[in-house]
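Both lines are quoted verbatim for reference:

——
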Amino acid sequence: MSIKVSSLSKIYDTQKAVDNISFELKKGEIVGFLGPNGAGKSTTMKIITSYLPPTTGTASVCGFDVQEQPMEVRRKVGYLPESNPLYYDMYVREYLEFTAGIHKLGKDSKKRIEEMVEMTGLTKEAHKRIGALSKGYKQRVGLAQAMLHNPEVLILDEPTTGLDPNQIIEIRELIKAIGKEKTVLLSTHIMQEVQAMCSRVIIINNGKIVADDAIAKLQEATQSASDALIVTFDKEISAAELKALPNATSVEAAANNTWKLLSNNADELRRELMQMSLNNNISITSMQSQVYSLEDVFRALTK
């Protein structure tokens, strides 16, 4: 396994930031690590990169224990933290040369730096000081340093934060290309990014893992747990009338004369809606099942 986390916990005083979590990542996987602010995502990533020690449990990268073999772990990991700490007074190539020295790349440094400059689209900006770059290009520099030593595992914490739509698409394509050969664990709040890049997601809430599965399977599970119908009438109808239906577990106004109804038995609710419309001389102009998005899944699991 590229990453293996077993019964991992991190406690700060009386607060459990991470609470007995376990998961594994194989080579070639791009996995989205999702959760609300303060859920424990960044803490977990810092433990995996040997930046923080766990309170209990274990974590390993490519077979190396993060506590007992931290230097070996750091050789295997490329890490882009959310804050992306860069030396703004350095030029792009100068900073990458500095990073190459830390990783002791030796005679391969110049070749590897030029490969990263080209791969991350920094060629036209490489002559500038990092402080003069836009947010998007600073993120590219962060990705370049994370990949410079050709690690087997990439840990990316909010890699597209603050980028414009064009920059997001470019960084997304870069991460997808990287993920064909490496293992990528990335944290983000942008659900479209996860759906575009990841086949699997791990959702953490209050320090505990609440879901770990393929995106499609999580959507199916949420759909089956509570069916949703979107219904449009040709006249006004009150929420009270809809709430009176035996199989309507939740009623929410969606638009003019359009309502979202949740039910544990969608077929029965359809029949009740049809009967109600006949009894009240109201026509149903549209009725369809809602297809759950990853955002719906996230909200259902973390609300």
In short: The chain has a mean pLDDT of 90. Residues 226-291 form a domain with the Alpha-Beta Plaits fold (CATH 3.30.70.100). The chain has two domains: 3-220, 226-291.
